[in-house]
Amino acid sequence: MKTFSPLVAGAALALAAVGASAQTAASAPGTNTPRIDQRQANQEQRIDKGIASGQLTRRETRRLEKEQAVINRAEDKAKADGSVTAKERRRVTRMQNRASKDIYRQKNDAQVAKP
User: Fold this and answer.
1) How confident is the model over 18-63, as pLDDT tens digits?
2) Which among 90, 63, 66, 94 is positioned nearest to 78, based on CA atoms?
3) Long-range contacts from 5-14, C-beta under 8 angstroms, 24+ separation
């Protein structure tokens, strides 16, 4: 019976977390940006893969990561007032488009990381 109680406690905590996140999303309409968030995650993954494969130098990586940080700050600023307008969404999307092109260019140029 002792091993069962931590399991029940863990399940209860998981349900509480799900409920809290749903409540947060419902209480702040217009701040939920799943497409932007997923695209950010994808671009950060592309950078990580470029580092692992040696396609990105340290300098290229630093620049791309700074660009991602700027996009994250722009998204946070857009969400700050509780609503992401269409104009703010377009701005962040354009920034992501530019970053995506930069990632592609840097990964596919002649420079390679030194081993």
Assistant:
1) 554 444 444 455 568 899 999 999 999 999 999 999 999 999 999 9
2) 90
3) none
**Predicted TM-score (pTM) of this structure:** 0.71
The two structure tokens encoding residue 78: 């857009």
Closest among 47, 109, 48, 44 to 71, alpha carbons compared: 44
- Contact between 43 and 68 (Cβ < 8 Å): yes
Amino acid at 35: R
CA pair distance 53, 74, nearest whole angstrom: 29
Residue indicated by tokens 């995650």 = 41
Tell me how far CA of residue 7 lies from CA of 18, 49, 80, in angstroms: 17, 37, 37
Residue 111's pLDDT band, with cuts at 50, 70 and 90, is: confident
